[in-house]
Amino acid sequence: MLKIGHEVVRPGRHRGDEPVTIPVPEELETVPGIPLNQREVDWYAREYPLETMNITERASRDWANAIRDTHIEMREIRKEHDKLNRPLVMAARLTGDQDPTVEPTGGDVSQDIKDKAKDLGFLEVGITYYDYRYTYQSKKDYVKFPHVICLAYEQDFEPTQTIPSIDAEIVHSSTYRTEGAAALELAAYINSIGYHAQIQSPTDNTGPYIPMFVEAGLGQLGACGYLLTPSEGSRCRLIMITTDANVSYDKPVDYGIHAFCQVCQVCVNRCPGRALMRDKIWWRGLEKNKLYFKRCRPIMARYLGCGICMKVCPIQKYGLKNVMEHYADTGQVLGKGTHDLEGYTIEGKGYFGPGELPVFDRGFFDMPQGDTEGWAFDNFKKQAAAAGGVISDELMENFRQEVARGLSQSRDDLGMMEEEDYI
Ligand code: SF4
Ligand code: SF4
Questions:
Q1: Do you know which PROSITE patterns this protein is assigned to (predicted)?
Q2: What is the 301 CA–ligand 2 centroid distance (Å)?
Q3: 165, 267, 308, 341: which to mutate for ligand 1, most atoms within 8 A of CB?
Q4: Using CA atoms, how far apart are residues 199 and 218, in angstroms rounded to an integer?
Q5: What pLDDT does residue 421 have?
Q6: Measured between alpha carbons, how far is 268 from 223 in angstroms, rounded to an integer?
Q7: What is the pLDDT of residues 178-216, one digit of tens each?
Q8: Is the CB of 271 under 6 A from ligand 1?
């Protein structure tokens, strides 16, 4: 039995449930939230502001979407989701302009908002300040209010265990829609108690959410790159609401996850793309396991959105309390090495149990990089070099057309939804 360093007490999953106590063994204690260097976070935010990969990696986004759409069921799921989700995203974008319907009483409404969020089905809710350092360059004037309500909606257990699968893709999309509708209700509730509320929709997001969820005490960053929440691990979808309501802030928590991931490593070992890093590095002022995007996107594009790193995470499957109790009792990672936790089937490749990984052809991970016009220029240079530096009229015309296509593409999430064949 390991010595327990501290215990974390969290509210139950639903309103009225008993609180949940999570033991954190002393050897897993690091810092509340995530190790960070504030000066570096400030510096990167100022000198190298973040931008959405929908813009910076547009070329591979279009490439991956085209591959995914060759799978008939995946294409139908996407079209259905886009059709149903679009009104929710458009409604979310209007919420910031909605005036409150009454005068506020002036009291602290944090608990009222949290209770309402739980009633609407959110399993995790926490409040902190909106951290503008994590805002995308293209959205820097978008967020109107200083406080942020961080919300996590559970994704159904059973279909998630079948990842990668059509069932899992369906539940992944539908969870986004369910939480989108619930967030609209929560925003209307905040208006009804006297305050503004602006939904930051995951389809139209202003930046990475996880730093603010960690600051609000809703979990810690896993080696898989997902937020690991105490009640459902990575098996949830995130959404945020910024507000001017009179609220008090929650605090970051050390759940032991930062150190536990270095012991566990199940997602790192099981990733078919070898896209997850074993060791942590310092990146933009945070200490984290960094994902190799170039090894992840080609897998996601071809294998039903992949998500194996979510499926094989013991915290997703068994819950943080069970995982920590088991580790404290035995020094072992619950489920590690079992087919139940680690096994998965990849369409067209078969089943892979613990210790087994698929092999891909040479060139599998080649994909376009950067935005459309940047990728056009890279290709132009390569073809001109191959032709001994001769730039033919045809080469020039192809380049001109690709650059024109890139420049005509929308940089706005809603604008992207309007583009040809979006639905
Ligand atoms: S989605 Fe798949 S390929 Fe990407 S990191 Fe997770 S397991 Fe690896
Ligand atoms: S599988 Fe293990 S290493 Fe990966 S995120 Fe989950 S707990 Fe961390």
A1: 4FE4S_FER_1
A2: 23
A3: 308
A4: 18
A5: 62
A6: 7
A7: 999 999 999 999 999 999 999 999 999 999 999 999 999
A8: yes
Ligand with an atom nearest the CA of residue 226: 2
Q: Is the pLDDT of residue 423 over 60?
A: no
Q: What is the pLDDT of residues 278-297, one digit of tens each?
A: 999 999 999 999 999 999 99
Mean pLDDT estimate for the chain: 96
**Nearest ligand (C-alpha, residue 266):** 2
Residues 6+ apart with CB under 8 A from 275: 291, 292, 293, 295, 296, 299
Using omega within 30 degrees of 0 as the cis cutoff, is the peptide bond preceding 164 cis? yes
| pTM tops 0.70, yes or no | yes
Q: Where are the domains of the chain?
A: 1-370, 372-418
Rounded to an integer, the average pLDDT of 30-59 is 97
Q: Which of 234, 276, 312, 316 to mutate to test the pocket of ligand 1 (most atoms within 8 A of CB)?
A: 276
For 128-132, 202-206, 262-266, 410-414, which range has the lowest pLDDT when averaged over its residues? 410-414
Hey, what's the torsion of the CAs at 218, 237, 88, 62, to 10 degrees?
Answer: 130
Which tokens is 250 given?
């929650």
CB 324 within 8 A of CB 24: yes
Say if residue 201 is exposed, middle or buried (CB neighbours under 10 Å; 0-12, 13-18, 19+): buried
Say how many residues make up the chain: 423
Tokens matching residue 37: 């260097």
Contact by Cβ (8 Å): 365, 298: yes
- The alpha carbon of 343 and the centre of ligand 1 are apart by a number of angstroms equal to 14
Q: How many other C-beta atoms are found inside a 10 Å radius of the C-beta of residue 404?
A: 12
- Tokens matching residue 236: 């949830």
Q: Which two tokens stand for residue 4?
A: 């327990």
Nearest Cα neighbor of 322 from 311, 312, 337, 333 is: 333
Q: Report d(CA 346, CA 331) in Å as an integer.
A: 31
